[in-house]
């Protein structure tokens, strides 16, 4: 409860910020975009990590205002980068299942896009596989509507849920993100290698781009690249960084 109250105040008092982690094309190493990750700097507790406060936010319903804050901030950043000549970078935003499942989600996204002037063509929504576990017509139509608005949709934490493959084929999504837990012990761990391989061949068969996250070792990169993984994200390339640092990193990278 203490953390919950502190988090409520954090949203009001501007203690949250976004860090951005580069995503690179596997074949030529070009920067294609980034994932926005929320950070909380509490005046006394110091840095509180999302693994601690996202679950609290989900249990208390605070994830809704927090998620909107994150999306608004990421959209503002996309618009600012475009004005500064750093356009052409996809900005991916994590959407919690609770947020996505609310009837007014599409409305909130529409409002935030209008308010910030962000270009939906450069905004990607990362929706967890678990958010789509009980696919209803309503949720399916929500994805279709978001896609029609020009947003890119990615399935995050892929492999941790149990998506029906038949359903996956019909989903209006364009990317799969292999969960970090399956990348961590590549290429040695046979089970993880099987999950990663299966995801890559599924992506190929269904025409979905596959992104690997949590790439830390050159051996993991080589293994994934050899199997056709299109994009990579991880400490091997760069850590999540504040916006200004990300812009400098991007300029130096190209
Ligand atoms: O950045 P870090 O590795 O600490 O993130 C830990 C977890 O918190 C990850 O599962 C990540 O998806 C989640 N997370 C980070 N930022 C956000 C956010 O803005 N919204 C939501 N819903 N989850 C986030
Ligand atoms: O669940 P989600 O995919 O959104 O989680 C992304 C999280 O993974 C972020 O919290 C980010 O800080 C973390 N992350 C990104 N790259 C790496 C990496 O190479 N190694 C580890 N251990 N964590 C990473
Ligand atoms: Mn993510
Ligand atoms: Na993930």
UniProtKB/TrEMBL annotation:
Leader sequence residues: none
Domain EAL: 1-254
Recorded superkingdom: Bacteria
Compartment(s) of residence: Cell membrane
Protein name: EAL domain-containing protein
Residues of the full protein shown: 835 to 1088 of 1099
């Amino acid at each position: 409860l203490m953390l919950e109250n502190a988090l409520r105040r954090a949203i009001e008092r501007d203690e949250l910020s976004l860090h951005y982690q580069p995503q690179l094309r596997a074949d030529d190493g070009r920067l294609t975009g980034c994932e926005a990750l929320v950070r909380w700097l509490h005046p006394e507790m110091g840095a509180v990590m999302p693994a601690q406060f996202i679950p609290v936010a989900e249990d208390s319903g605070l994830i809704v205002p927090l998620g909107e804050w994150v999306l608004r901030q990421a959209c503002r950043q996309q618009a600012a980068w475009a004005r500064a000549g750093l356009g052409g970078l996809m900005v991916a935003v994590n959407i919690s299942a609770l947020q996505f499942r609310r009837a007014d989600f599409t409305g909130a996204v529409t409002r935030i896009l209008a308010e910030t002037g962000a270009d939906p063509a450069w905004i990607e929504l990362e929706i967890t596989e678990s958010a789509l576990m009980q696919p209803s017509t309503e949720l399916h139509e929500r994805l279709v509507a978001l896609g029609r608005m020009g947003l890119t949709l990615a399935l995050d934490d892929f492999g941790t849920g149990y998506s029906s493959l038949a359903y996956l084929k019909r989903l209006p999504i364009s990317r799969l993100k292999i969960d970090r837990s399956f990348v961590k012990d590549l290429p040695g761990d046979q089970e993880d290698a099987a999950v990663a391989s299966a995801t890559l061949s599924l992506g190929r068969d269904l025409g979905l781009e596959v992104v690997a996250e949590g790439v830390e070792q050159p051996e993991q990169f080589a293994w994934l690249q050899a199997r056709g993984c299109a994009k990579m994200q991880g400490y091997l390339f760069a850590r999540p960084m504040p916006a200004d640092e990300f812009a400098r990193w991007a300029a130096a990278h190209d």
